[in-house]
């Protein structure tokens, strides 16, 4: 039901920064629970960071202190600021939205961190 489009992925050197964006459809964006997931080849998809409609945030231990999730409800947008990137952060990153008992997914954007 919710359409999501990610952007901002690319190739970056270790120690660098990258900012991912996610544009969401719908008139109730403020009520969506939003999150960033990532999946590396041969690994399970994992939750990187999430934020609720009340702007509470949670982070995976592996990214805590380096990544920041934020949202702009006036623009129906979700962001992930990634700092101090490591080769282990290389993965396809997906935007996800939880609303009315359903989870929607974006198409994913590739992030590659070179050493």
Short description:
The protein has 115 residues and is mostly beta strands. It contains no helices and eleven strands.
By DSSP, the count of extended strands is 11
Chain-averaged pLDDT: 96
Compute the number of helices.
0
Major beta sheet, specifics?
7 strands, mixed
Q: Can you tell me the residue ranges where pLDDT is under 50 for at least 5 consecutive residues?
A: none
Task: Using the CA coordinates, give the radius of gyration.
Answer: 13 Å
Oligomer: single chain
Structural class: mainly beta
Order of helices and strands: EEEEEEEEEEE
- Large-scale geometry: globular
Distance between the termini: 39 Å
Bin the strand percentage: over 45%
The percent range for helix content is under 10%
Notes on the protein architecture:
With 115 residues, the protein is mainly beta. It has no helices and eleven strands. 0% of the residues lie in helices and 54% in strands. The strands form two sheets. Strands 2, 4, 5, 6, 9, 10 and 11 form a seven-stranded mixed sheet that branches. Strands 1-3-8-7 form a four-stranded antiparallel sheet, with no helix packed on it. It is globular, with a radius of gyration of 13 Å.
Defining key terms:
115 residues; mainly beta; seven-stranded mixed sheet; four-stranded antiparallel sheet; globular
Spell out the blueprint of helices and strands.
Elements: E1 4-7, E2 10-13, E3 18-24, E4 33-39, E5 46-51, E6 57-59, E7 67-72, E8 77-82, E9 91-99, E10 102-105, E11 109-114
Parallel strand pairs: 2-11
Antiparallel strand pairs: 1-3, 3-8, 4-5, 4-9, 5-6, 7-8, 9-10, 9-11
């Amino acid at each position: 039901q919710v359409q999501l489009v990610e952007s901002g992925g690319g190739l970056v050197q270790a120690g660098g920064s990258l900012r991912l964006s996610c544009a969401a459809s719908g008139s109730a964006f403020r009520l969506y629970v939003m999150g960033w997931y990532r999946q590396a080849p041969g690994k399970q998809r994992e939750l990187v960071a999430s934020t609720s409609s009340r702007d509470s945030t949670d982070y995976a231990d592996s990214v805590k202190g380096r990544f920041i999730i934020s949202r702009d409800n006036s623009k129906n947008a979700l962001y992930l600021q990634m700092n101090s990137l490591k080769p282990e952060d290389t993965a396809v990153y997906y935007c996800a939205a939880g609303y009315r008992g359903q989870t929607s997914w974006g198409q994913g954007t590739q992030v590659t961190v070179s050493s």
